[in-house]
Every structure is written in C-alpha cells, then in structure tokens.
Amino acid sequence: MGRALRVSIPLLLLFVSACAPEGPTAFVTFNVPPSNDCVYMPSQSGDLFIPRGLFDISEGGRSDSDSDYCARSYNMNLQVNSFLRSSQDEGLGRAEPNILQLHSAEVTLMTLEKVIIHFDRPGEELPNPFLVTTNNSIFTSDGKTPALGIAPVEAIPAAYAPQLDGWIGNQILVQVQIFGTTTGDVDIDLKPFVYPVEICSGCLTICREDLGSGLSIDDLIGDQCDDNAGADDRFCIDPCVD
C-alpha cells in the first residue's frame, strides 16, 4: 500500500486560506490626481478622480525649436481596491498571507473601437501590448470596505508619443491590467481597467519666456508634479532654446 500524505487540520486550513482567496479580490476604480502638495492618495469616497486623460505629445514649445524637454511619458496613478481579508493567526504562528504586493502591469493602447494600435513605423517598431513595472503593497480589508492603495503606471511611454501624431484631437483607450502576488504567494490578476485619453500637441506646453508677468511656473505645475507635466491639465514649461 502506498504511503499516505497526512496533513493536520490547522495546516490544511493554512494551505487553503493562502492559496484560494474567496470572493472579489482586487480591482481598479480611478485615475487619481495629485493633492495640492503633489501627493497621490486614495479616497474611500471616490469624489476626486480624473474622468478622462489628456496627453500632450509635443516635444517642445515651438515648431522651430530643437528642444525635446517636453518629450514625456503619460503616467497614471490608479486607485486599487482590495477585498482580501486578514487570515493572520498568532496562535498558529502564521503571518499575514493576504497583503497584496503589486509588481507589474500589461498596457494595451487601442482605438475607441478597442482595436489594438500598431506602432510599426520602419526602424521605430514598438510592442503593443507591453509590460511595465509598478510597485505598492495593499493591506487587508475589514470585509466591509476595501483596503486602498495607488499603483503608478507608465501608461504611454515617451517613445510611443511620436507615433500618436495621427490621433491629435481624438481619443484613444488605454487598457491597464495590473498583476500582483500576495505575501502567501498567490498570484492575483486584476480586471483590466480601460481609460480614455485625448491626444493633443502643444495644448499643455508653454515657453518659459511666454509666461505672463502675473503667472509663475508654480501656478501651472508644482515642483514635485513635474514628473507628469504635459498631461491632465498640468503644463510643461519648455526653455524653447533654439
């Protein structure tokens, strides 16, 4: 007779709770704007979010300028909601296995009809969809309200912007699927989040010398918000040096 595998009840429960979370796990709800001091914070009420993105693909403030100071990526800061409940048990000596650690995201750029956009100019071919990194830990829920966290995602890398010139004045869809792993080594794939982004050229770019006397750089973008200047109503201040 073959050798039987004997597992104690507490150990079996530990295995099941670590490997098979029940019910809804985690999902994205919003693209979150920065606070007044340029910090991205989640919100339980969900009363502050960006309903539609705006991305300026221009590289400089003037057509006759060689400056590429404003060649930026479009970044999103996505609110992640986790309903993973705590199963920590000090009596069993078990640490918390349900903290969700976000690590990467697959981004797909599409038309409004959800057709994948091809970035295939000769010598400038780029993959779509593509994988980017993200990083955050989402703690456990009380079972009534989700635990919240922000996942920063480089949704449209700067290298893709020049090939979006045919979309100026129109919208594309950015689909983001975030991946994570719990501290109990369970992989969690969040449902894809689809978000419209309008493409423009120069609408969020201004030359430094063209700033009005009553308007400062800080009036347009905060010092720490410069990481996403040229997007979502924040201007990129270009030196415009020929």
What's the helix-strand series? HEEEEEEEEEEHE
DSSP summary: helix tally: 2
What's the total number of strands?
11
Structural class computed from helices and strand pairing: mainly beta
Report on this structure:
This protein has 242 residues and is mainly beta. It has a domain at 22-51 and 74-200: Immunoglobulin-like, CATH 2.60.40. It is built from 2 helices and 11 strands. The chain is globular and about 60 Å long.
Looking at this protein, list some descriptive labels:
single chain, 242 residues, mainly beta, Immunoglobulin-like, six-stranded mixed sheet, three-stranded antiparallel sheet, 2 helices, globular
Please outline the helices and strands:
Blueprint: H1 9-19, E1 26-31, E2 53-56, E3 74-82, E4 100-110, E5 130-138, E6 147-156, E7 171-182, E8 187-189, E9 193-200, E10 205-207, H2 217-220, E11 236-238
Parallel strand pairs: 2-9, 10-11
Antiparallel strand pairs: 1-3, 3-6, 4-5, 4-7, 7-8, 7-9
